[in-house]
Amino acid sequence: MTSPLLRPALCVLDTQVLLDWALFDDPRVRPWAEAIQRGRVRWIYCAAMQVEALRVVHYPALARRFEPQASTLKLTDCFARWGQCCATPPTQHCLVCADPDDQMFLDLALAQHAANLLSRDRAVLQLARRARPLGLHIGPPESASAPG
């Protein structure tokens, strides 16, 4: 059995950061993508996060730029190859997001003791200071170095 000290740190990616990685190939996300792909970080998600990401690729603004079917295949592959699906966590009451749609990211990160929640969402970022004492770093990908 692997020692907890040797296990890769867990991270949660919000939908925008995932799209930045999988569709936009945003250079600000590349260090994290490489860390996930090399096994230095474990990206975790729950089924609701996957459903949301696959729904978002059909939004008109994205559908004009990326063909939705190709985007769906690309995201599905990303989830299957690089992510680890976790059970939907119970709602955490220590950090409550102003945007109920973003609560799932916080809940999963806290329930699974993730080290990082990578987000660009203002409502999520506003909780960064309160998350620190709980052992969770919340910020955009460029705000923390990817392990490794």
From TrEMBL:
Source taxon at top rank: Bacteria
Signal peptide boundaries: none
Residue ranges of domain PIN in the record: 12-123
InterPro entries: PIN-like_dom_sf, PIN_dom, PIN_toxin-like
PANTHER family: SSL7007 PROTEIN
Protein's name in the database: PIN domain-containing protein
